[in-house]
Design a protein that fits this description.
Pfam families: Rick_17kDa_Anti. Keywords: Signal. This is 17 kDa surface antigen. It comes from Roseateles depolymerans. This protein is of the alpha+beta class. It has 2 domains: about 1-20 and about 50-100, no CATH class; about 35-50 and about 105-150, OB fold (Dihydrolipoamide Acetyltransferase, E2P). About 30% of the residues lie in helices and about 25% in strands. It is built from 3 helices and 5 strands, in the order αβααββββ. The chain has helices spanning about 1-15, 55-70, 75-100, and strands at about 35-50, 105-110, 115-125, 135-140, 145-150. The protein has a 5-stranded antiparallel beta sheet, with no helix packed on it. A hairpin with a 2-residue loop joins strand 4 and strand 5 (about 145-150). Helix 1 packs antiparallel against helix 2 (about 55-70) and helix 2 runs antiparallel to helix 3. The protein is elongated, with a radius of gyration of 28 Å.
Amino acid sequence: MMKKLLIASLVAVLAACQTTNPDVIQRGDAQRLSQVQDATLLSVRPVTVDGSQSGAGAVTGGVVGAVAGGSVGGRREGLVVGVLGAVAGAALGNAVERSATKEDAVELLLQMRNGERRAIVQAKGAEVWQPGEPVILVTTGGRTRVMRAPATTGAPQSNYQQPQYQQPQYRQQ
């Protein structure tokens, strides 16, 4: 019984975890048109995003603590220890969830081409940021991520040729 509760609690805590890594795209954002803006990176600052408290850790910890405490001693002692176990388990479960969902991130200060300045916090990805480098902001579905701007070598080249318009010729009758 205890083993099943432990497995259920681990599943609940892991299900509450969701990535915010800028290198991972959400399934719903695939094949959607995104808005892209050019900017220059002004500064980078490491920050920590506080862990979530969805309640899954507290509920799971409370159940495990109540079951573990309830199995101690006789009927009366088991009830008291079960209640104390539930409270302690809930507090511990909440702390575990919060710690497990804490994330290293970076705060990026950007200078937009129109002169406006913006700041964004995003999860720390594989990028190594350098102030002064060109970046792009990609916004999809209300979520924005910053990426290094692709290297360009002047004006974009295209092999596309505009079709020539020809005046239709009408027969005269």
